[in-house]
Amino acid sequence: MNKESDNLVQEAKQASESGNLGVWLLGLLKKTEANNTDLINLIAKKKDELRGPELIPLKEIKRTFGPEKNMLHRESQSEFNRRVAKIQKAIVAGFQPAPLLIEKSSQGLVLLDGNHTFEALKVNHTEYWAIYYSGNDITKLGEF
User: Fold this and answer.
1) Which residue, 8, 24, 125, 129, could crosslink 99 as a Cys pair with Cβ 3.0–4.6 Å?
2) What pLDDT does residue 33 have?
3) Beta-carbon neighbour count of residue 124 at 10 Å?
4) All domains of the chain, ordered by start, with CATH?
5) Which residues pair with 41 in a beta bridge?
6) 66 by DSSP, 3-state: which?
7) pLDDT tens digits, one per residue of 26-43
């Protein structure tokens, strides 16, 4: 939630237009998701298949991270709510989050990164920018 991140959607669009979306996204993930090596390795393999950013209806996207029992990755309800509230506050103040990262799979549109942001966006948005690829690799990151 800083000035540097205010132009991430525009940066993603420019990277896509120049054929460098995968390289741009890997750079962003290495800064923001450095501990998520499974995600970084998956995107490194798929970097040439990435498309977007494209406006996607939020109601079509399935979260993979949160307090619910069926989540691929779980977090306590209180921590999840705290993080979502922090992002919601920033969005109300004018912050524009980075595009969500989704996989178009046989399970539908599955959110790979941006789960807290996704929940925060649902307050004021019905659609948001997403970077995606078509595949079925979510199961390689764990049970879903």
Assistant:
1) 129
2) 83
3) 10
4) 3-141 (3.90.1530)
5) none
6) strand
7) 999 999 887 888 889 989
